[in-house]
Amino acid sequence: MQSLENAVQDDDATQEMLSLVLEEPDHWAMFLDIDGTLLNLAPTPDAIEVPEALPGQLHRLSNKLGGALALVTGRSLAYADELFKPFAFPTAGLHGAEIRNAAGMQTIEATPEFQALKHALTAEAEHYPGVLIEDKGAAVAAHYRLAPEYEKVLEERMHHYAEVAGSNWALQLGKMVFELRPARSSKGDALERFFQSDPFKNRSPITIGDDLTDESMFAIANARGGLSVRVGAIGAPSCATSRLSSSALVRNVIAALAA
Ligand SMILES: O=P(O)(O)OC[C@H]1O[C@H](O[C@H]2O[C@H](CO)[C@@H](O)[C@H](O)[C@H]2O)[C@H](O)[C@@H](O)[C@@H]1O
Ligand SMILES: [Mg+2]
């Protein structure tokens, strides 16, 4: 994987490149991650703030792109809709396991066994003060941002719960979080499903994300001759060929394109 240190594009070059998107609005499709990309990271999952102007800017930019703007997130689809209401963008939730595109809506329900697993995990987490369990229906996240001292024990236990869940779930690592997500689809798989129908068909992808889960959509963008932009300070290796050092810069690009 290319490391960010060798990314072809730095902040200025990336912003310059993205500013040219609207010179060919029928050529591009934008796929945007939410946490850490559109929104600043916060101490807890529900402490995030959506800048007041952002939903309308995304709506205006989507219109300029003929609707070819999708949110691709580890959040549930319903949670993403709540964040950006009154708009309901094409969206892939739970890291790609549920999707709303021109073909309709496909969601996924938790099995009784997975419900029982979430109850057991929640009960066990009582022993790790500060660890937050985020129930996302067919997925569950164990957050240790407020209790980093529990990272190691959580890693061990979430590997155990992944074994219990079986092959229909996958352990997804992220920023101070271990998640069990449906294994059936990644963010990269979600992009391929968006490309099967208008308005995304035959367009080149612009993918912007900040975390491990976004790497699969960066790979699709690279393979399709599009753009892959990793957000955040230089750190973890990435196959993204460009970078933006903060979600504030991402919002600046969105605001400029939506103007
Ligand atoms: O794919 P994304 O849209 O980036 O969602 C990834 C996960 O984001 C959330 O967790 C992360 O953001 C939280 C709020 O800023 C932060 O407290 C946490 O430490 C981060 O891991 C969300 O809670 C998860 O469900 C998403 O999968
Ligand atoms: Mg993210």
Automatic annotation (TrEMBL):
SUPFAM superfamilies: HAD-like
Top class in the EC scheme: hydrolase
Cofactor(s) required for function per UniProt: Mg(2+)
UniProt keyword annotations, A-Z: Hydrolase, Magnesium, Metal-binding, Plasmid
Entries under InterPro entries matching the protein: HAD-like_sf, HAD-SF_hydro_IIB, HAD_sf, OTSB-like, Trehalose_PPase
CDD domains associated with the record: HAD_TPP
Reactions it catalyzes: alpha,alpha-trehalose 6-phosphate + H2O = alpha,alpha-trehalose + phosphate
Functional summary from the UniProt entry: Removes the phosphate from trehalose 6-phosphate to produce free trehalose.
Classification via PANTHER family: TREHALOSE 6-PHOSPHATE PHOSPHATASE
Name of the molecule in the record: Trehalose 6-phosphate phosphatase
Source organism: Rhizobium johnstonii (strain DSM 114642 / LMG 32736 / 3841)
